[in-house]
Amino acid sequence: MKYLFSLSLLLTAFFTHAQVSFTAGGLKIGIDKKGFVTELSNTGDHQNYLSKDTIAPLMTLISDGKKQYPTSMTYAAGAKKINLIFDAAKVAISVKVTVKSNHLVFEITDAKPVSKIDAIIWGPFPTTISKTVGEVIGVVRDDKVAIGLQVLNIKTLGGDLPNNEGSTWKRGLCATTHSWGSTLQAYSINRDRPRNVDAWGGDFVNMPVAAIPAETVKGSAIALFSCPARETLDMLGQIEVAEHLPHSMVHGTWYKKSALFGRSYMISSFSEADVDEMIGYAKRAGMFSLYHEGPFSSWGHYILNADQFPHGIPGLKMCAEKAHAAGLLLGVHTLSNFINTNDPYVTPVPNEHLSLTGSAFLANGTDEKQEEIEVSSPEYFKEIKNNTLHTVKIGTELIRYSKVSDTPPYKLLNCIRGAYGTKASPHLKGDIAGKLFDHPYQVFFPDIKLQRDIAGNIATFLNQTGVDQLDFDGFEGELASGQGDYALELFAKDVYDHVNHPIVLGTSISKTYFWHICSYYNWGEPWYGGFTESMQQYRIDNQALFERNFMPHMLGWYLLAENTSLEEMEWMLAKAAGYNAGFAMVASPLALRQNKHTGELLDAIREWEDARTQHAFTEVQMEKLKDTQNDFHLEKTGNNEWKLSRYALSPVFTKEKTVKQPGEPTFSTWSFHQSWSAQPLNFKLFAKGKAGSLRNIKITADNFYDIDLPFTVNSGETVIYNGTDSLMVNDSKGALKAKYKLNSKIQQLPAGDHTIRFDCTFEGDEPPSVEMRFKGFMESEVVKLNK
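Predicted structure:
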């Protein structure tokens, strides 16, 4: 009877149609009497881009864990509502249709009975377009036309309900590639009932998740549009404004069209005492922001480190004001909703809303000293892999344990009572022992309610200090609530909505609604492998993702150390220019003070970035700059004009100490092709290691040209020969240690194939290995800004 009553309500209207079509801006969509899409056309070229190779429901229902498609559709013209019926589940869903000037809006206004609805999926909408599929933003494009789906609130997530958690580790699923072209889809979960999910991508199995009252699929909404491909970004901005989505502004301009789009920034550790020095470094390098790598003594309440900021909030506010006066933004780094064990949310009284992976009842009461605690079930306590802190919460006491017994009666063993500064207390039979959700970073997490308080703490901190850059690093921490990607979107929106000044926001994870909030994705670390290593291919592969999704190209984080050389720096800067990508330069005050080349490194960053951000490099030059087998040097020659020199590189040759038979030759033979013209031999030799040294080094080219190095090269030192009459030795910090006169006549090596014979004596218990590379000058050309 309830179903019939709901159905009769949905069918009440001034007039109904069995089939219907809507046109808005460049899009025309047709829907048949069963609720399936029949047309997805662009009004400019009158082409139907709907793929016929698969089904195309307007909406898919998930009920009792199974997908169901609509069986009938009617349109109430007076109410402008589509009414969908799903016979198998006896579910009726009403969708309001609003025609806007540029797009169509579909919004669920009623969905009954709620008890039969696990989730809904908008679409999937299959298209024949496959050239550019923007998986995060939900836009597919070819050379002429774009078709897009925009989620209009956080309860509507990009994708096709990937799992019961409602989360994915993929960069995006709002648009996906298929054999027929692509699909666009979004989903919404009924959260108005308790659920059990496999959280954190399935790592925490069967985690109980409390209901969020009234958070059903009602209100889930999407926008559909089509436009010329070249106008897609403008269209996305117009939809943001029209639908009151986040529309991030900086200096009065939409960030995605601002001068800061894709700019580089400096990450450092600084204090009130040396912030002026760091601002000077950042300004000299042409960075747009100075970003503190970690100013907090605890996450959760975001208490500042007193050693760095003895005046607390006012001290950091002063730093922000100094940065702003210098034309810079000031940023801080944290890990989203991670909670340190020394934070007031944990100690001395743990918050009741710390997230639990699960719980059990106490089978017996305990006193405050008991080291074995009997629980009704071992389910959530036996986890080994994802259990870093081994902590349970009983009342207001935190207790650490080594493991849970394998057989009944199940006991938490070797308990440490009153952990993390909480008070050991007696507990009663039937009390709840909750297993705290933790992480290898030695932290706990909040549930969805406490998460919102933490987001408020971040916003308050930003408002009090004037800090205007923040990364949602560790964004996956929100998954600890059990609410999947919804929790990530909610956290970011809570912060964004409550900050009272323009702010630049980055992230470690891309999500569809968050695209409207986010200023950049900057992935690519660790940086300890050196500029030419350290996930370099991963960094490069990310550029296509950014391009597909209208995000600035970013190369990730790089470390400027006390021994970073100009050659290393320019190798990275050339790649940044080639991909028109920004980056984060991590540089501690100490490293900047100790590096003998800091001035020229910062100047190089500034000149390369100035040329890049002004689009001075031609497309042909940018393609050359991408080549990892080339070195480049950029020299300023005038106002908005530079000279770009290119050097080709051989492969890196290596040699390690090996045990040979008496009399057996110890030399290594290397071959390389010299693509450059006839030039003196040019090489760089690095003694890679932490101890020991190399001596008696002899290099022979083509069996006739000998170069002997009449000195010892210690581990960490570099020998550079640029074809002059001198050899240079740099110490482990990159500073010039010594120059040696060449002991032989300078010889020109012609273009073509060459053989190098290398020999040396390895000294020390753990002698260094040899890394050697040859290079030659190829060409110089002008880089000029054409206004």
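Summary: The first strand starts at residue 16 and ends at 17.
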